[in-house]
Design brief:
By secondary structure, this protein is of the alpha/beta class. The longest helix has 24 residues, at 863-886. The protein is elongated, with a radius of gyration of 40 Å.
Length: 1073
């Protein structure tokens, strides 16, 4: 018999299921058979039955399609365990058979679509879509399939293709087996049927499947447990759209509206959301032998409970019957709708809302909460960031189901898929280094964590960019040049280890010698890795049969990965995908077929297979469950939350194929994605016990323009606003754009995220102003070198962080360059200019050794490098011609001074000429170069036996002289005092800012503006504030305005740079660069 148990609460239906399954089966070894719609329901049932029975064992939870197939296998012979007509197996059979059919007239449309399919990927995608469509035909259009097999539609390509498939695979498919089952004399073989069958939480069944269960019910007890919103007959409830269609049809037939108004009374939500359920309920009632209602009113008659009550009694409080609207209490938060500006704000607001619910609802646990979204994968990284980025006292346990694998598996999976594309891969430096970040990959290569920083340093310095060698680049359609390839870099590294010399070319190779001792093992392993990549790129680039691929891919895994315990999940996913592929091919009788598959096809298939592996075990595991909205996932929870209820995202749309016969002529009982989603929304409304929370992106984050919610949310709002007296307007909460908005901490909003609170006073800076923060001086500064002064004043803040605190900051996380340079970067240009200028001054006929620079990988690609060198040589020659005459007869002097405070200053001064000491720099003049010159100028003037105390400073486009300084020893003493102070605290002495300030010191306002221009930077001015040391040390204050006495910015700028400006002589004239 077929028994229908229906009710509005799944807990009640579960109680009845527990009663029915309590008596043991006659066969003690037989499994209880329970048919469910998804794995999430099976987990909930297993937990519920265990609570009620004390144990829940030997229960077989299965999906409807699997149960029906198992029934076929029990009733007929020669039915395989896996159907050859499953979508996965059928995909490969269609892929293999299409080429032979494309030249026939019926396939002209497909032939045009596939004409540019060079590697087979389009054919695989098309085969997958056709297979999925044929699978639906087998369930919902069995008559069409059987008609094709009888020869109908002889010239239609789908019919031709289907007949070809059945000729190859036989007719053991669902449509034929359903027909055979229906026509079988004497009905089913009862001995092959389970003793008892229960269907729990099924919201829809194909008519053909319902016929199977009806046939089974003729022999055994079949119990159907159906979640139903109302105890009244609601199968004839019609939505406004359906009513409009009915009225249009009635008017065309000349029938009065009053004659067709049946079904217009009732609950509008039920009419709108339950179309799919109405059709299933109608079909089910035609088949059942007993009807067993199990209904109960909501436990609370708040807003949410009253909405559920109205569904139960199929009533509408907003109807025109004079019924007063029900008042809603001020503190009623059972139904909440929130509009945000972005998905991240949705998750942030949700987190605050859940924390508030834990305080408000007694006994609420994380396991009592479910959060659903149309596509939870879009929210997964945001959920991890928000829920995982809070302090322990605000941490809520969470898990995300319905996403592929574990986050920890992804690097391994991505690396495996990338290796499959080796034939097309550029072997970019960044790509290989990323692979080496995967522990299993690095272990196989013999390169541990300690090796990777050194290897990256070598490869950058050796000039590796991309490509194994010139031949590999030629294969990719690029000029077969070896420079900046892996072969180029490895030759430099290997030769450098052998000869330990970086200034000599050996057979056109410039050695890179920075490799010592046991590091040679790392270098050898790296060279072997690149060689292995080349061999596998060649092997994977050849088309192979499925059987050959299934032998090759495990070898690929073993060649590049040494799996550890932490990799078990990722390894299992990959090997499972390979095993499933073999099963699909075997089911399609293609296991030993000689079909050539390109690596692009194999990669596309495995990528899809790995991406669609989902982690359903994370559902109902004791934490807040985040998951997709899927049928009957809305099992009872105290709190149900829906994210992403946007107008364009829900109900979801499914693109229709132009050749989809189901979509072209729908029938009653067909599945619809949009109707499924309406049913899911109704289930969420029914399943929430204490609170239903809904959020959507209601405003554009860029211009704040409004966006509509899902039409289902709008319908819910209309029902609420028409039937209830709400305590506040608007009912929908509109949240600020940003989490740090002050509005979040004032009613009606609230937030537990105290880190976003604006500070009541300025935050305590890392290094307070006014010398309050100091580091003990641990150095003996009784003797200081001239070089030490230069190093300090080049960048005082960076010097303090490095030398006093041991901090080394970098401008950014520089990614490895994956392409050749076509211009010199700033450092390369500066180095070449300085080297070339020094050479030209000492030896006028010297030229840059371009061949050596190319061998070292220092020049831009091709002619770009030659042009860059030519420009630098010309500039160096012009500047050297100015400097060289000034150095005739120049001498050097040792420096050993005793400063007024007793400090000993030592060093060496070069380029002291008869008329002036000469200082020069290859680039344009700047404050740092000027300050370096000034230190030497003061040292020169402190010497007693030097007749000329003038300094000439020459730079590109500049030639300046500085007059003698009478109090040079005092000035040097001031610099040494700042040097000592700067070793104990960060001094706000920023050379470019200080020089600009001192230049306009006569007008403090203009001086500060000039300094700020250099602090903040601009299109042509590098910001001093963006230098890593400055940004770190002064990130919590404005150092230009801090009043720190003698160590404040203004005092330092005037102390250091004002004397420089005073000593600057009138310019003899600018020389053009």
């Amino acid at each position: 018999m077929l028994h229908l148990h229906h009710g509005n609460r799944l807990e009640t239906l579960l109680d009845r299921l527990a009663e029915i399954t309590a008596p043991p089966l006659a066969d003690v070894f037989a499994a209880e058979r329970i048919v469910v719609q998804n794995p999430g329901m099976s987990r909930w049932l297993a937990q519920g039955l265990a609570e009620r029975h004390g144990i829940a064992a030997n229960i077989d939870y299965t999906l409807p399609a699997s149960f029906v197939w198992d029934t076929f296998r029990g009733q007929f012979e020669a039915v395989p365990e896996q159907s050859a007509f499953s979508p996965e197996a059928l995909t490969w059979r269609i892929f293999a058979g299409l080429p032979a059919l494309l030249d026939t007239p019926a396939f002209a449309e497909l032939r045009r679509y596939l004409r540019d399919d060079g590697d087979g990927r389009k054919r695989l995608q098309l085969a997958s879509r056709i297979a999925a469509l044929f699978d639906q035909y087998l369930i919902y259009r069995a008559d069409l399939i059987l008609a094709w097999e009888r020869g109908a539609e002889a010239g239609e390509w789908q019919a031709v293709l289907w007949r070809t498939l059945t000729a190859q695979l036989g007719r053991r498919h669902r449509a034929a087996l359903l027909q055979e089952l229906a026509q079988r004399p004497g009905g089913l073989d009862a001995s092959a049927l389970p003793e008892r069958v229960c269907l729990f939480g099924i919201t829809a069944l194909a008519p053909s499947y319902l016929d199977v269960f009806r046939a089974i019910a003729s022999h055994v007890e079949v119990h159907v447990f159906l979640l139903s919103p109302s105890f009244q007959w609601w199968a004839d409830q019609l939505s406004e759209r359906d009513l409009a269609r009915r009225r249009d049809a009635a008017r065309q037939l000349g029938v009065m509206d009053s004659a067709i108004n049946a079904g217009t009374d009732g609950n509008p939500l039920l009419a709108s959301l339950a179309r799919q359920g109405r059709e299933f309920l109608d079909a089910l009632h035609e088949q059942v032998d007993s009807d067993n209602p199990h209904y109960a009113p909501p436990e609370q008659l708040n807003l949410l409970g009253t909405l559920q009550l109205d569904l139960l009694f199929m009533q509408h409080r907003g109807s025109n019957d004079g019924q007063a609207r029900m008042p809603v209490a001020e503190d009623d938060a059972s139904l909440q709708i929130h509009r945000c500006h972005s998905a991240i704000r949705e998750v942030q607001v949700l987190h605050d809302h859940l924390l508030e619910l834990f305080e408000r609802l007694p006994g609420l646990h994380a396991r009592d909460i479910v959060v659903m979204a149309p596509e939870i994968g879009r929210y997964a990284p945001l959920i991890d960031a928000v829920f995982g980025g809070v302090p322990e006292d605000r941490r809520i346990p969470w898990s995300i189901a319905d996403i592929s694998g574990n986050d920890g598996d992804e690097p391994l999976i991505r690396s495996f898929l990338a290796l499959l594309q080796l034939p097309q891969d550029r072997h970019a430096l960044g790509t290989v280094l990323n692979w080496l970040q995967v522990p299993a990959f690095a272990r196989r290569c013999g390169l541990g964590d300690d090796a990777l920083p050194r290897i990256e340093q070598w490869l950058r310095a050796a000039g590796v960019r991309w490509g194994r060698d010139g031949a590999h680049r030629a294969e990719l359609g690029i000029v077969a040049e070896d420079t900046h390839s892996w072969a180029f870099g490895l030759r430099r590294l290997l030769l450098g280890y052998a000869v330990n010399d970086d200034r000599t070319r050996i057979a056109s190779v410039a050695p890179y010698p920075d490799i010592e001792g046991q590091e040679a093992v790392w270098l050898g392993n790296l060279a072997e890795l690149i060689d292995r990549l080349g061999r596998w790129a060649s092997e994977l680039g050849k088309p192979a049969t499925p059987a050959e691929w299934l032998q090759t891919l495990p070898r690929l895994l073993n060649a590049f990965f040494d799996f550890g315990t932490e990799d078990e999940g990722g390894e299992a996913r990959i090997r499972s995908a390979l095993h499933q592929w073999w099963e699909q091919l075997d089911a399609a009788s293609l296991g030993d077929a000689s079909i050539p598959l390109s690596n692009a096809v194999v990669h596309a298939h495995l990528r899809t297979a790995l991406e669609t592996q989902t982690a359903s075990h994370r559902f109902l595991n004791g934490a807040v469950s985040f998951c997709n909205m899927v049928p009957m996932r809305s099992i009872p929870f105290r709190v149900v939350c829906l994210l992403g209820m946007n107008d364009t995202d829900y109900p979801r749309t499914q693109p229709q194929l132009s050749f989809d016969r189901i979509a072209a002529k729908p029938r009653k009982g067909d599945r619809s994605r949009r109707d499924d989603d309406r049913t899911l929304f109704l289930e969420a409304l029914l399943s929430a016990r204490d609170s239903l929370y809904i959020s959507y992106i209601g405003n554009d984050a860029r211009d704040d323009s409004p966006r509509n919610p899902s039409v289902l949310v709008s319908e819910l709002l209309e029902t609420v606003e028409s039937g209830f007296e709400l305590p506040r307007q608007p009912f929908v909460s509109r949240h600020p754009l940003q989490a740090f908005s002050t509005d979040n901490f004032h009613p009606p909003y609230f937030s537990y995220a105290g880190e976003w609170l604006p500070a009541p006073i300025a935050p305590t800076p890392l290094f307070p102003a006014g010398g309050e923060f100091t580091v003990p001086e641990n150095h003996d500064d009784s003797a200081i070198t001239l070089d030490a002064l230069h190093a300090f004043f080049r960048d005082p803040v960076d010097h303090f962080l490095r030398e006093s605190l041991g901090l080394r900051l970098f401008a950014e996380d520089v990614r490895p360059a994956d392409a050749e340079d076509f211009t010199l970067d700033g450092l390369q240009s500066w180095t070449l200019r300085n080297d070339m200028l020094g050479q030209r001054i000492d030896a006028p006929d010297t030229h840059i050794d371009i061949a050596l620079l190319r061998a070292q990988g220092q020049l831009p690609h091709g002619d770009f490098g030659s042009l860059a060198v030519a420009g630098i040589e010309a500039e160096a020659e012009a500047l050297a011609n100015v400097i060289r005459p000034t150095l005739k007869g120049a001498i050097e002097r040792e420096l050993d001074l005793s400063l007024p405070d007793g400090t000993r200053l030592t060093g060496r001064l070069k380029h002291i000429g008869r008329d002036a000491m000469v200082r020069f720099q290859a680039g344009k003049p700047n404050a740092r170069g000027q300050l370096a010159m000034w230190i030497d100028h003061l040292a020169l003037n402190a010497l007693d036996d030097i007749p000329s105390k003038t300094t000439r400073w020459i730079a590109q486009g500049s030639d300046e002289s500085y007059v003698p300084v009478a109090d040079a020893m005092t000035r040097l003493g001031e610099l040494v005092r700042l040097y000592r102070a700067g070793r104990t605290r960060p001094l706000p002495l920023f050379p470019d800012c200080a020089a600009a300030y001192a230049d306009k010191a006569h007008d403090p306002t203009s001086a500060l503006i000039a300094a700020e221009q250099h602090w903040l930077g601009g299109e042509w001015v590098r910001a001093e504030s963006e230098r890593p040391a400055n940004a770190f040390a002064f990130r919590d204050r404005d150092p230009l305005r801090d009043d720190s006495g003698e160590f404040g910015f203004e005092a330092l700028a005037l102390t250091v740079f004002k004397p420089i400006l005073d000593a600057k002589a009138a310019k003899p004239g600018k020389r053009k660069s």
